[in-house]
Amino acid sequence: MPVSSHNGSGRKLWVLGSIRMGKWRIAAVGTGNIFRGIHLPAWLANPEAEIVAVCDAYRAGAQKIADEHGIKDVYEDYRKVIARDDIDVINICTPNLYHSEVAIAALKAGKHVF
Predict the structure, then answer these.
(1) Is 59:34 a contact under the CB 8 Å cutoff?
(2) Do residues 54 and 66 touch, judged by C-beta distance below 8 A?
(3) Model-level pTM?
(4) What is the pLDDT of residues 97-108, one digit of tens each?
């Protein structure tokens, strides 16, 4: 029997057991080599995922990825991405020393962190 839930955003997510129905809405924070070479191809190959935003302190790099893949929203400040209530997952690909700062903020906002 389906169970209705939400991620704190007010958007309903339908789950059946542990299977989520509907696409995960992904935002990438950090769009350098690790994201471009490993994470981005994996998300693009996953029919259950949709990249809706990219964020990088180096905006031109994020903008290039957005333009190449039809991603509408580009940010330089990860806090603006995390504040969006329509994003389910924050994919962190920043330099290691920034991982905890972004992850803690995302978790406090009720996001899944990858």
Answers:
(1) no
(2) yes
(3) 0.81
(4) 999 999 999 999
- Which pairing describes strands 12-16 and 3-6: parallel, antiparallel, or unpaired? antiparallel
d(CA 9, CA 92): 20
Q: Catalogue all structural domains in the chain, each as residue range(s) with its CATH number.
A: 22-113 (3.40.50.720)
- DSSP 8-state class, residue 28: E
Q: Which residue is listed with tokens 């696409």?
A: 23
Please provide residue 14's backbone torsions phi and psi, each rounded to the nearest 5 degrees: -105, 130
In this structure, what are the phi and psi dihedrals at residue 94, rounded to the nearest 5 degrees? -80, 170
Q: How far apart are CA 50 and CA 47, in angstroms?
A: 8
